[in-house]
Amino acid sequence: MGRKLKPPGMAVHGPPRLEGASVDTLPECPEHLSDEAKREWARIGPMLVECGLMAAIDTSGLALYCQAWARWIEAESKLAEYGTVTKAPSGFLVQSPFLSIANRAMDQIAKMLAEFGMSPSSRSRVAATWKPPARATQSPAVPDEVDPRLALRLVK
After folding, report:
1. Which residue range forms the structural domain that includes residue 64?
2. Which of 6, 7, 69, 82 has a CA 20 to 30 Å removed from the CA of 108?
3. Does 108 reside within a domain?
4. Degrees (nearest 5) of the Cα angle 66, 49, 125?
5. Count of domains in the chain?
6. Residue pLDDT tens, the chain, 156 long
7. Residues 36/67, Cβ–Cβ less than 8 Å
8. Residue 142: phi, psi to the nearest 5?
9. Residue 125, domain member (yes or no)
10. Residue 156 lies inside a defined structural domain of this protein
């Protein structure tokens, strides 16, 4: 019997891609994000757009990443202030609750980094469409076609 045949039009190798779905400008930052999350949105968002890794459908995923980032930053600052161990009301030393929060946020961040291809191992699994920066003005001396040798140098 073997494996069932895929329907016509479905990709034979790998998952279907959203061709041409990447956006040219970063979508508006959701209002409900914390101030730190909004700063991370403004920092990382343009890089994702430039690499062709951001589509309009990814707004929620980026918001999740940014909020986890903000939670991690806050927990780390509290850990720096109070330490990783604290004294319970009974007098025994216990792990700081901020350590658990920081560790959970780091796990969430790592998962979202992989989803967006922002970790070294995940970059090979994510299809990126790099967009070269637009030229301000092109002089007549510059040819319209790119020299293929230059493209090879960029790949190396």
Report:
1. 35-73+102-130
2. 82
3. yes
4. 85
5. 1
6. 667 666 565 555 555 555 556 788 899 999 999 999 999 999 999 998 888 888 888 899 999 999 999 999 999 999 999 999 999 999 999 999 999 999 999 999 999 998 888 887 777 776 655 555 555 555 445 455 655 555 555 444
7. no
8. -90, 125
9. yes
10. no
